[in-house]
Amino acid sequence: MNxxxxxxxxxxxxxxxxxxxGSSAVVKTDAGNISENDLYEAMKADSGESAVQQLTIExxxxxxxxxxxxxxxxxxxxxxxxYGDSFESVLASSNLTKDSFKDNIRYNLLVQKATEANMDVxxxxxxxxxKNTWEPDITVxxxxxxxxxxxxxxxxxxxxxxxxxxxxxxxxxxxxxxxxGGLLDPFGPGEMDESFEEAAYALENEGDVSDIVQTSYGxxxxxxxEKTEKESYSKVKDEVKQSYxxxxxxxxxxxxxxxxxxxxxxxxxxxxxxxxxxxxYLDTTSTSSSDSTTE
Length: 295
Known about the structure:
Elements: E1 25-27, E2 34-35, H1 36-62, H2 69-83, H3 87-93, H4 98-117, H5 123-132, E3 138-145, H6 148-159, H7 164-171, H8 194-202, E4 213-215, E5 218-227, H9 233-247, H10 251-264, H11 279-282
Antiparallel strand pairs: 1-2, 3-5, 4-5
């Protein structure tokens, strides 16, 4: 389990492509044939709106933003390394293949690029973010358990001098980190569950352990591994900018960016049965940029 990224199946990544209407037989049987039109109507009824939505968004964004195979493969590699030997089974459980997951990645990167292009990343915005929000990456270990009683049991053992790394291996349900003493990749503001992040940044000295922290994943104990001092804005400007961009990759901002791009492309759905496929974007009254909520 990783708290930064998860593999998700859903509307994105659909491999369904709606066929053009026609009378040619797709399947022939003695009981009768299945025509292209039959197939189109069945596919449309099953997943038509979702397919039209993704295909249209991808078509519009691809005309303006470029996602390279190198970018897709680099992102794919991150997931493969994150899940290790269980990656293929995770894909299978999400009804994804290697190729369809890469399609997901390409789609997501297109949306991210459109969202970033509609952000205000002026010096004024970045300096305000640096002053009020940004902190350097922090490195911690954690032990994740399912219930508070188990968390208290682990906490008591820590108080009695047992090693955090040993207890992580014994108790933690986060199988991606338990064998490594609960060590998580470095992270910055906005990348983790809010309560987890708050507790982690509250730790001051290497080896300090938090109180029990509850998140949607369960109950955590967090140990500080490394916390660096905040440097001047001029030295960390690039990091601040990337952190700011990451913090603005919200559903609301992505939706606003997609809405803007679809409206600019003058999208018109010709099939009346699928006319509402883009209603969540084109029926919105707001035409402001995806950074409209940024302060």
